[in-house]
Structure formats: structure tokens, C-alpha cells
Amino acid sequence: MKYINVWAIIGLTALLNTGCEKILEENPQSQIVPSYFNSPAGVLGGIAGVYNDIRGQWGTEGFTVEMQAGTDDFLQGASSGGGPAYTYNGLNGSNFGSAWGVAFQDINTLNGVLQYGATIDLPEATRKQYLAQAKFLRGFWYFYLVQTWGDVPLNTTFITVPSQAASRQPAAQVYEQIIKDLTEAAADLPNTPTAPFLGKAATKPVAQLLLAKAYLTRGWLNNTAADFTQAATICSDIIANKSTYGLDLWADYGDAFVPANDYGKETMFVSDHVLDPKFGYYTVGGAAGGGAAQNLTPWFTNWNYPNNSGVNSFVNASGTLVNSGTSGMIRDSQYGRPYVRMRPNTDRLKTGPNAGKSYFLDQAFTKRDVDTRFANSFTTVYIANTAVTNSATAANNKRGISYTTVVGADTAVWLPDFEVAGAPQFVGTRPFKGIVVPPSLWNNGIFPALKKFMDPSRGANFNDPSTRPVVLYRFSDVYLTGAEAYLKAGDANKAADLLNVVRQRAAYKKTNTAAQNTAAAASMLITAADVTVDFILDERSRELFGEWQRWHDLVRTRSLVRRVQAWNPEAAAYIKDYHMLRPIPQTQIDRVVDGPKFTQNPGY
Questions:
Q1: Are the CB atoms for 189 and 164 separated by under 8 Å?
Q2: CATH of the domain at 475
Q3: Is cis: bond before 424, omega within 30 of 0?
Q4: Is the residue at 116 inside a domain?
Q5: What is the pLDDT of residues 261-297, one digit of tens each?
Q6: CA-to-CA distance for 511 and 471, rounded, in angstroms?
Q7: Which of 207, 256, 403, 472 could be a cystine partner for 185, CB 3.0 to 4.6 Å?
Q8: Which of these three, 466, 496, 511, is where a domain ends?
Q9: What is the Cα Rg of the chain in Å?
Q10: Residues 311, 447: one domain?
């Protein structure tokens, strides 16, 4: 498996009597001193440590919840454990902010790299690449921070002496620094991954995409036409130079999520996750506890298929699916671990302007007969992986027949995206060996599972974390970001052109004839009149569902409260305007005891 070669550099820091990761986690102000960065190994160790800390957020459970819960895309799963992040009810600084401390710790490390690494003995081109990586990563973290909390502390010098004083600087100043860092990083980063930053570390187009997103977000904050134009221009430049950057869309949307393509042409930037005990997070074969740097992404939206797929399940008098009979499935690598933390927002609304509609099926994933993104994103068919003998006289077996399911051939669970008469034990009048669960029977315990990130490669150790990288940015995002920027800049025609590239790709099927693919692509075309902010947000749901962007997408477009109230039945009653910013972690507020108090965001 490919991965960023800077992980190997972590070992070099043993020359300094401790590992880079340990330095970054334990009192960094007192353990990292300026002399640490006076060698190539120290500079690389600092950068590697920051990449490692990104790995400890993207792909982990708490951070995934923070990036996606409480939106129009997701509701709670049966095993979410509740939580204010989903509903906003009681959300405060004691239950949010897993990456706050990590981000500032890493920013301080990067400040040291930039402050002292400029004089290390390296060829000029190599030194520039190292420092460009540091600028990108500092811009990356500050962009996350300012989107999430607004005004935050802004530090650009290396801190070696602990302080109990801190203050927040205006978001405008933070954006100025982000844009400066990313602009300079884009100028000096290579066009394609270059040693020692291999795999899919930061490159010129990655820095450009993040820069475009920063301009776009600042433009929304200030309604600044120049920022929208700048973002649009940057995205167009990336697309125009895609061959130089080794980037492109796969012809088939589903190919973007084939494990063999994780480091392919559509992938721009990843957080690597390798199944290697030397990192100390787990022992191979010892299962995953969900701690630091464990990629459990494949399973957060996975329902409990081994336990809730009883072959004689039935609908009770209340119209609810009741699990009954021997399970038609056992846990395996292909279908993954049943975490049931979050689920697609499939509920049909009972009141309001969207009464009777489901965001999932009626707003986001429409045109499912042509648009392949639903079929390529969600598992709706589970093939039996265990033989089950079901007697005609078994309790709640209404089929009137006895049978045994055939492993690898019979369907154990079918979750069609339309209503099926006779469900769950019949298709019409025909007995069905497994169970049929149409949308009216979906609930917080059974629903289509997100399959983009599934990792069947773990073999017998299917309880171990995933070894797949977490993909933070894909090339299709350049088109979507550019479309939004062009719309806000007043050019809806160009916005439609960019959206049509993504939409027409979504219509492609390998099983179609050329004529069928041409007709399908034509049916997906939109015009400038179709392009609105809400249309783009729906398109981002279709294209990027579950890819750690939704909360920031809704906040950026000032759409969070409106769309949650319109579509999310769990959070609609609780969300307020002040929820556009997350609560400052209480630990941060408590630790500032010198000088003015560290302020909390309004409303919390």
C-alpha cells in the first residue's frame, strides 16, 4: 500500500531521544526547542508529526461526528449514544472540539519549522518544498479553525515558554494569514507528489483548491465579489492544468471509491492510515477501540446487519418493522462492522413545507434511474453469507414454505429505494427468502449503509481498523467549488458548465451501450436557470455524501439553520442562529487565567 513517505521520517527523530509523535503530544513547549529544527531530520520530523495528527482526526469517530452530524445529510443511528452534536440540544464546550488542541499544537510545530528551518543545510529547491509543506499545513489547520469557531488565537511565531494567557483575533486577520500561507505554498509546492512527500500529500493543486475554498468562504462572510471571482479563477486554472497535475475524473463515479484507486487520478489529498503496529495505536488482530489514528470510517453508517436481519421479520400493527427469526447474515469483512452511529436522513417529514418528503430520496438523491451516485454510494443488497434453514411453521414465517438460504447466491436483505408490495417477506405475491425493507420501513436500526469507504481487505482480522486512506479532497470538488464561486460572482452559465461535468459523469455506467450513456448524460444536463445555492448544496450531497464536508458546506453558504429546520426532524426544534459557530472547548477557557478571560462564542 502506498502512503506518505514522511511517516518513515518519524523514526529519525529517535536520534533526538524521543519520537516526533510523543514530542507533539507531551508538553510541546518544553520538549521541542529551536535546535530541534536545525537539521533536515528535525524539519521533516515536525512536518511528519503534523501529518500524523491529521491522521488522528480524519477517520476517527468523534471528529467524523463533528464534521457531519446536525446537518441535512445525517440523523442519529440506533447506537449513536445520543449527543448534542446531532440535535444541538445542550451543545456546549464540554462536549465538542476534539481537534482544537491538536490544531494549535501542530500550528506551533509548524511555526518552529518555518522560523528555524529556513536556514537548514539543503538545496534551495528542497528547502522551499519543505517550507511550502509547512505553510500549507498551517493554512489547512487555520482554515479548519476559523470555519468552525470564527475568531481564534493567531500565532505565527514558535512558542517555547508556556503561557496561561491567550486571546482571540478577528476572523478577518486569520483569513489574511490563511490566504498568505496557501498562496506561498502553492507557488513552491510541486505539481505532483514528490519525495519524500509521496502518496497524496500536499501539492500545488491541493494548495490551490484550499486557497479557492478560503476565498469562497471569506466571500460569503463579507459578500465580497472579488473573493468569489478569485475562487472561481483558481478552480478554472486547476481544471485547465489537470494533465500537468496528473488529475482527472474517473469515467465511472464508482471507480473513485475502488480501493485500488485510492491514490489515483481523482484523489488530491489524503490522510494515510496504515495497519502497522509500529505506530502503537493497535495490535494487528487485536481489534479497534476507536482511539487515535484508527480509521473506522467504513462502519459509522453501518446498521447492525448480523443482528437485525431476521428472516421472519414482520410489520406490526403500528407499521414498524419487527426483527424476528434467525439472522440471515453474520459479520464479515465485506459488509463491515455494525457501528450504527449515524444514518442517512431518510425520515419522511410529518409536518412543514416538506411534509411527506425525505431529504435523502426526494431532495438529494433524485433521478436514481440515471444518476449512479446513489447506487455507488450505498449498499442496498446483502447477499447471504450464512446458510439459514427456515421452516414453514417457524414463528412469524408467513411465506408458507420451508427453505434454506444459499450462501453467496440468495439475497438476505434487500433495501429497495421504492415501496414493494408484500414486504418484508414477499415481493408482490412471491415469497422472498430474505427480507425486503423498503423506505417506509427504514428506521434508526436499518437503512442503506454508506459503502464508499468499505475495506474488505482486512481478511480474518475484520475487527481491525481500515488500512485505506481517508480522502479529504477529490478532483470533483474543484468543479463544485468553482461552480459555487462562479454563481456568487454572477456567472450562472459558467457555474452550470462546471456542474454539468460532474453530473454527466454521474450518468455513466459500464453496463450501458455508448448510445445509452450518451442519452443518460444528456438527461442530466442543467441550464443556468437551474443553478441556485440550494441546487449546488444538493449536488454536493450527491457527490460528496459522508466526505467530512457537510457541516462546513452549510455554514459557509449561510444555509445551516434554514436547511436543518427544513429537513432534519431531530434538530429542527433546537438549532439557532448562534449554532453557525461551534462552542469553544471549556478546557481552553478554563486554562486562560492570566489577563482577560478567553471568551466563549455567543449563545453557549
A1: no
A2: 1.25.40.10
A3: yes
A4: no
A5: 999 999 999 999 876 666 666 667 777 665 668 899 9
A6: 27
A7: 207
A8: 466
A9: 25
A10: yes
List % helix, strand, coil for the chain (3-state, nearest 5): 45, 10, 50
CB-neighbour burial class of residue 67 (10 A; exposed 0-12, middle 13-18, buried 19+): buried
Q: Per residue in 7-60, pLDDT tens?
A: 333 333 332 333 333 333 333 333 567 778 888 999 999 999 999 999 999 999
Examine the domain organization and report whether 328 and 418 are in the same domain.
yes
pLDDT tens for each residue of 217-235: 999 999 999 999 999 999 9
Q: How confident is the model over 103-128, as pLDDT tens digits?
A: 999 999 999 999 999 988 889 999 99
Same domain, 316 and 435: yes
Boundary-marking domain end, from 508, 531, 554: 531
Q: How far apart are CA 150 and CA 171, in angstroms?
A: 6
Q: And the C-alpha cell for 307?
A: 443482528
Contacting residues for 214 by C-beta, under 8 A, at least 6 apart: 139, 143, 175, 178, 179, 182
The answer on 484 and 456 residing in a single domain is no
Q: Note whether 382 and 446 are same-domain residues.
A: yes
Task: State whether 447 and 335 are in the same domain.
Answer: yes
Quick check: 91 and 56 in contact, CB under 8 A?
A: no
Distance of CA 383 to the CA centre of its chain: 27
Per residue in 319-374, pLDDT tens? 999 999 999 999 999 999 999 999 999 999 999 999 999 999 999 999 999 999 99
Number of domains into which the chain is organized: 2
Amino acid at 558: R
DSSP element (H, E) containing 590: helix 586-591
Cell of 264: 489515483
Residue 100, in any domain of the structure: no
Put the strands of the sheet holding 411-414 in their side by side order.
381-383, 411-414, 435-436
Confidence (pLDDT) at 178: 98
Pairing state between β 411-414 and 435-436: parallel
110 and 138 Cβ atoms separated by less than 8 Å: yes
Q: Where are the alpha helices (DSSP H) in 69-170?
A: 84-87, 100-116, 124-149
Q: Is the peptide bond before 344 cis (omega within 30 degrees of 0)?
A: no
- Rounded Cα distance between 108 and 51, Å, is 14
- Nearby residues of 600 by Cβ (< 8 Å), 6 or more positions away: 93, 583, 584, 589
Q: Helix or strand or coil: residue 216?
A: helix
Dist CA 259 CA 255 (whole Å) = 9
Beta carbons of 334 and 454 less than 8 angstroms apart: yes
pLDDT over threshold 70, residue 584: yes
Q: 384 is in which domain, residue-wise?
A: 298-344+356-466
Q: Same domain for 494 and 406? A: no
Nearest residue to 182 (alpha-carbon basis) of 146, 139, 144, 147: 139
Q: Please check whether residues 315 and 437 belong to one and the same domain.
A: yes
Residue 541 belongs to some domain of the structure? no
Q: How far apart are CA 480 and CA 537, in angstroms?
A: 9
CA atoms within 13 A on the CB side of 515: 0
What contacts 330, CB < 8 A, 6 or more positions away? 306, 385, 386
- Say if 483 falls within a structural domain: yes
Structure confidence at residue 16 (pLDDT): 30
